[in-house]
Every structure is written in structure tokens, then in C-alpha cells.
Amino acid sequence: MLPAEFYKENRRKLAEYMEDDSIYFVFSGEPKESTHDECYIFEPYRNFVYLTGQNCAHAMLLIVKKDGKVKETLYMHIPSERDQRWDNLIFDPEKIKAETGIDSIEDILNLENQLSRVLFDGRIQNAYMDMAHWKMSYPDSPDMRFAKKLQAAYPFMQVHNAYPFVCSLRTIKHPAEIEAHRKAVDITKEGVLNMMRNMKPGMTEYQIEAYYDFVLKYNGVKRPAFTTIAATGQNANHMHYVDNNTVTKDGDMILFDLGAQYNYYCADVSRTYPVNGKFTERQAQLYEVVLKGLKAAEEATKPGAVKDDLQKLSKQVMAEELVKIGKIEKPEEIDKYYMHGSGHNIGLDTHDVGDHGLILEPGLVFTLEPGLYFDDEEIGIRIEDTLVVTEDGCDVLSDSIPKEIADIEAVMKR
Q1: What does the alpha-carbon distance between residue 280 and residue 110 come to, in Å, rounded to a whole number?
Q2: Domain boundary residue among 113, 142, 170?
Q3: CATH code of 136's domain
Q4: In 3D, which of 257, 223, 231, 221 has the Cα closest to residue 398?
């Protein structure tokens, strides 16, 4: 949990954005069944987390703005004695009020009756929902289902999507959010170091990954920010390889793309290491090309820079280096080996909300991740950092996770 004042301020900005005589609602989400009577680990809708700090299922935040006055109510599932006994669902309204700064906590079963009274006189003309719908084929979210129900009952009501506005609030991070990112990166670093000190040829990718997973669990991280990639040889040339079941060989490089999360704030780091702890001359040559691309982009990261220009800079530097070592003849030939963007916003989601072509401002947290993929040499190299824009440059949060060849070999030798 971040401080209650953080969530109160986020809701204040949202209420200021709303028209008078309007309502806003956002649901936390519902558990999803995995098989039979098992459910996946519940993941709350991130805009709900941003406005309340709560991670419970079957909850809704309702904001009513009427006559210039704002009333906030958090509707929640009140657990029965059986829920408390079997699923350890604890309901402590005073604790929730202290964590959120919301004074009104109600049973979700009372929602429709209480909302009907608010809407009875017809003065509420606008309803703001929170809809992130990436594909038309996606099933309706709880917010969408509720919006349709509202419009059927109150045809005069105009429904608006507040999702873009809430996302704009999320783009620039509060200092407390940056500290949560920093903690997530610190846990990630511990996990990476544990793998480096224990990996050796003959282990499977998942056995190496297990040393990382242990550190996350030890630090209370129930699940990583995203599915870990641990890819050796040709596997590293497939961007989203997650099988992690190949036996490593002496002379292999292994590409890791991984990150812990802390209070739902994510780290995202990529590193590529020799499994036996020692780079070959060729591996070092190709690795330095990618590292130079990353360093150039990081050195250019500062307020006022255009985020997409950093990717272009990484690509240009790597292309020039590939020409120097004779891998390509012309810079444009780099497209044979470089086929993804270099970085993305990061926050409550690994690929976080916000305009990817934006001009950098202090408080923006994002990643830079140049990579080159050589099918002909069965080598894939990606180096990615999580960083925050500062007043005069950037703070590379993951900079202490070894990425210089000398540092990598020194750690793995120990």
C-alpha cells in the first residue's frame, strides 16, 4: 500500500475532471476460473488499484458529483463466516478507511438500491465508466456490463469513458510510486545475482530460473511482473519464448527478460550472460554492440527528449557498430537482426499506459531494451533497464544489475 493521501489525491483530480451532476464507477474485477474449482491468482484492475490501493475482487468505487459536492463510496463483498473460515477473507472497514481515505464502505449487494436513489430525480445526466478494451472480440468487463444496464434503465444518461484521463494521471509517477519501482528492481537484482552465482552448463533453463523464483518468493512476491524468459541459443531469437525447458550447453548464452513487482509496481530487466561465466571473443563483440546502443539511449534520456527518438538512436548506434565489425555492409541492413521497439512505459502494468511517442518529463518511468538476434549464429542478445526521468537526466534503477562484461564475469567467477 502507498500512503492514503496518494489515493485521495488521485480521486480528487478525477472528481475535478468530472462534470457536475455526474457519477464515476470502476470495478476491481472478478476471479477467473482456471480448472474445475480452482481460480487463477486474482489480479485487480489497475485503475481501481490506482484510485483505492485495494486488491479485492467483487468491489466497485463509486464517485457521485452533485451540486459541486463529491461523495465517494467503496462497495465491497462482505465475507460470510464461511468465506472467512475457508478463504481467509477478512473484512476490516476501519482499516480500509485508513488505507483509502474513503469514509463510506458499503456492501456491494446494496449498490443498485442506493444508486437508484441517487439517480431517482433525473439530475444525474452523465456517467463515467473506466473501459480498456483492446479488441472488439474481448468479452465485456464488469464496467461495460454495468454501463449497459445503466443505459437500459436510464436512456437519457450519457456514458463517457474516463479511462484515457485516469491513464494520463498514471503516466507521471509520484515519488512513492518511484520508490515502489525501486524496491521491485532491488528484488529483481537479488534474483538475477542468485542465478548468476548458481548457473552452469548442463542445467535446464527452468532450473536456472528457479534460483530467481526463490528470491521473489523469499521477498513476498507472489508472482513476477510477467512470465520470465530464460532463453539459450536459438530460443533467444524468439521474442516471447517462455517454455524455459532446454538443457543449456557449454558455450551457450542465456537471455533473461524478467521483473519482480512490489505493491503492483513492476520492474522489467533484460540481461544476456554466458552460461559458463566467460564470454567468447565473438560473444563479447556482439554483446558490446547492443550495450553501446543502450548506453547511447540512456545518455540521451532527459526532460524534453522525445521517447521514440531514443529507439532510433539505439538502432543507429548498433547499425554503425555492426558495419564496423563487418556483420552488415549498410546500416539499413540492421533490420535483419533488430525487429522490436526499444522500450515502453512501465508502472502498475509492465507495458504501462501512456503515449509511447511522448516528450519525456521528470517522473516518467520506462524501459530501454535494444536487442539483436542472430539466427545464423544462434545468439540473441537483449539488454534492458528500468529508468526514471529526473530533472536533469535519468536515474537507471537497474544499473547495478551487472551488464558490463568485466562485472558479469567477476560475479559468475565467484
Answers
A1: 67
A2: 170
A3: 3.40.350.10
A4: 257
184 plus 253 within the same structural domain: yes
Beta partners for residue 384, in sequence order:
270
User: pTM, whole model, 2 decimals?
Assistant: 0.94
Grid coordinates given for 178 = 518511484
Tens-digit pLDDT profile for residues 181-218: 999 999 999 999 999 999 999 999 999 999 999 999 99
Residue 245 to residue 237: CA distance in whole angstroms: 15
Same domain, 187 and 267: yes
Verify that 144 and 230 share a domain, yes or no. Answer: no
Q: Using a pLDDT cut of 90, give the percent of the chain over it.
A: 86
C-alpha cell of residue 7: 489515493
Half-sphere exposure of 202 (CA within 13 A, CB side): 2
Is residue 315 domain-shared with residue 399, that is, in the same domain? yes
Render pLDDT for 369-409 as a digit per residue (tens, 0 to 9): 999 999 999 999 999 999 999 999 999 999 999 999 999 99
Contact between residue 65 and residue 21 where contact means Cβ atoms under 8 Å apart: yes
pLDDT tens for residues 273-285? 999 999 999 999 9
Mean confidence (pLDDT) of the chain: 94
Supply the CATH number for residue 189's domain. 3.90.230.10
* Residues spanned by the domain of 249: 172-413
